[in-house]
From TrEMBL:
<feature type="transmembrane region" description="Helical">
    <location>
        <begin position="106"/>
        <end position="126"/>
    </location>
</feature>
<dbReference type="InterPro" id="IPR025929">
    <property type="entry name" value="INSIG_fam"/>
</dbReference>
<dbReference type="GO" id="GO:0036316">
    <property type="term" value="P:SREBP-SCAP complex retention in endoplasmic reticulum"/>
</dbReference>
<feature type="transmembrane region" description="Helical">
    <location>
        <begin position="75"/>
        <end position="94"/>
    </location>
</feature>
<keyword id="KW-1207">Sterol metabolism</keyword>
<dbReference type="Pfam" id="PF07281">
    <property type="entry name" value="INSIG"/>
</dbReference>
<protein>
    <recommendedName>
        <fullName>Insulin-induced gene protein</fullName>
    </recommendedName>
</protein>
<keyword id="KW-0446">Lipid-binding</keyword>
<dbReference type="GO" id="GO:0032933">
    <property type="term" value="P:SREBP signaling pathway"/>
</dbReference>
<keyword id="KW-0753">Steroid metabolism</keyword>
<keyword id="KW-0443">Lipid metabolism</keyword>
<keyword id="KW-0472">Membrane</keyword>
<keyword id="KW-1133">Transmembrane helix</keyword>
<dbReference type="GO" id="GO:0032869">
    <property type="term" value="P:cellular response to insulin stimulus"/>
</dbReference>
<dbReference type="GO" id="GO:0006695">
    <property type="term" value="P:cholesterol biosynthetic process"/>
</dbReference>
<keyword id="KW-0812">Transmembrane</keyword>
<keyword id="KW-0256">Endoplasmic reticulum</keyword>
Amino acid sequence: TAVIGLLYPCMDRHLGEPHKFKREWSSVMRCVAVFVGINHASAKVDFANNIQLSLTLAALSIGLWWTFDRSRSGFGLGIGIAFLATLVSQLLVYNGVYQYTSPDFLYVRSWLPCIFFAGGITMGNIGRQLAM
């Protein structure tokens, strides 16, 4: 998490695109609250099937990015973080270190990348605010 938080301001400086959208602590705290809500919804809200849950969480995660970030670097890093974290989770499950009660997509849950994407955006906002 700390590496992700540090990676966002470094990428902003490296690309020469300073992040100027909603740069205050109240926005960061709202982003954290929305992430907690998305995470809670993934565990507690019953959906008809996993595809419906995955699509809903994907829309909420993109909405989180649009509401609190809107940068190309933030979107790219969020996608990259979601891919790498899902890959690591998949390797852990495949090697028997961890297991899901009902995996639905290549040993892991299909909604997991959405949670990792939203978490990456949230940690990036915290890191950007701390870098100021």
